[in-house]
Amino acid sequence: MQVPDFPPDEDVRLRTLMSLNILDTLPEERFDRLTRLAQRVFRVPIALVSLIDSNRQWFKSCQGLEVRETPRDVSFCAHAILGNDLLVIPDAAADARFADNPLVTGEPCIRFYAGSPLKAPNGSLLGTLCVIDRQPREFSQEDRDALRDLAAIVEQELAILFLATMDELTGVCNRRGFMMLAPQVLKLCQRQLTPATLAFFDLDGLKPVNDRFGHGEGDVALTVFAAHLRRSLRASDLVARLGGDEFAALCIDTTREKVTTVIERLREGLEAHNREAERGYEIRFSCGVVQVDPENALSLDALLREGDVLMYESKAGRAR
Fold first, then answer.
1. Strand (E) positions, the chain?
2. CB–CB of 64/39 below 8 Å?
């Protein structure tokens, strides 16, 4: 049996999945309707909306199976998310990757599998819409197109959840998404005794920009700052716009000193942008940085309060 690899963007992919707050939730008709339709269209006994967690595949919608999850290492869907197009297995018993897979040799006795990867708006592949048969079969081009069409509808439903946790203007997490996901990240760091650092940002002088140039230009300043912030940090770091001109970044497996160095690079990048843009104002920020002690971690609310206090101390120091 071939154990599936991890996608190259696994950290971002898992963070995106966690931000949906969908795992281990109750069945929903909007997803069940689509798996029932897939079951009928393709005349298969099993149809699933499968989401790939860190060590399992979990079924948001499940027609034809009693279980709600299986281990990731035996999952066909974990193979499917390694590519951008359908994974079709006409006969799993004749495929060296799956012939001795326990889902083939035992229940549910998979012989045929077709799965279409489900893409989040940020490009992460979260799982699949898949159809399964206990008999080998072919899958025509028309079948493939139909499965893609159904998967696109599932993606639209997931996008609704995704956008509810994202800031539409800047493309980073919003406060809701950050407050849902950051506690999970902090628990993971505490369990693994891994350092983490919170940076709390406030744009300096955004109100005068809005007053003088209009809110449209203020939105430009926010978008530019968010883009520079994302480029300065790693893909595995959690970046959010908490509201107005406030941003936060939770940086995993790194120290306060390293984050401070990154912030200085961010400041230099924005200074270069200010010189080149010549828009009549400069994008500047104040920041408070708090290192999390994994053995005595503060709550997220306490970390944000401490970061806020340090940010205002920094702002006051810069004003003098």
1. 46-52, 56-63, 69-71, 87-89, 112-119, 125-133, 196-204, 238-243, 246-252, 284-292
2. yes
What residue spans in the chain does CATH classification 3.30.450.40 cover?
10-163
Do β-strands 246-252 and 238-243 pair in parallel, antiparallel, or remain unpaired? Answer: antiparallel
Other beta carbons within 10 angstroms of residue 288's beta carbon come to 22
CB 283 within 8 A of CB 225: yes
**Encoded tokens for 64:** 């034809």
| CATH architecture observed for domain 175-319 | 2-Layer Sandwich (3.30)
Banded pLDDT at 153 (limits 50, 70, 90) = very high
d(CA 23, CA 123): 19
Instruction: State the average pLDDT for the chain.
Output: 92
Q: Are 248 and 201 in contact (CB under 8 A)?
A: yes
Helices 300-319 + 175-192 axis angle, to 10: 110
How far is it, in rounded angstroms, from Cα 88 to Cα 132?
A: 10
Q: Is residue 319 very low, low, confident or very high in pLDDT (cuts 50, 70, 90)?
A: low
List where CATH 3.30.70.270 sits in the chain.
Answer: 175-319
**Which residues fall within 8 angstroms of residue 105, CB to CB, at 6 or more apart?**
none
Cα first-last separation, the chain: 66
113, 138 Cβ separation under 8 angstroms: no
Q: What is the DSSP string of 94-128?
A: G-TTTTT-HHHHSTT---EEEEEEEE-TTS-EEEE
Place of tokens 């690079």: 265
pTM summary value? 0.75
Report the DSSP pairing between strands 112-119 and 87-89.
Answer: antiparallel
Across 291-299, average pLDDT: 80
Residue 74, phi then psi, degrees to nearest 5 = -110, 5
Tokens of 57: 């595949």
Q: Check pLDDT > 70 for residue 46.
A: yes
